[in-house]
Specification:
Number of domains: 1
Radius of gyration: 13 Å
Structural class: mainly alpha
Number of strands: 0
Strand content: under 5%
Helix content: 40-55%
Length: 108
Amino acid sequence: MANRPEIDDQPALRASVRMRQVLATYCHELRPATVTDLRAALEMGKYRWLEDELAQLIAAGGFPADEWDAIVGRLTNDELFGADRVRQQRWLWEFLFPARSWPVHPAA
């Protein structure tokens, strides 16, 4: 059984190399201190591409489970999220981009 449905019969989107690198650097285990560093970097104008790329990936159904786990680690016992990758991704989105709504697929 697939970890997530394909949208409009298109292959699942994958994060770009640069997105994987930035998220792996700042978001491993979703540690608040390093995620806060990423938000500060975004506020200073770094990684201007991240918001759009992340929005596209989320709107297309989010990260495939294997890719997300490789980037942030497997957070199975986390008090805030448990093993729910969508909650993890939603928290990250809302923390990094509080003025923007959660991205949804255009056909939704």
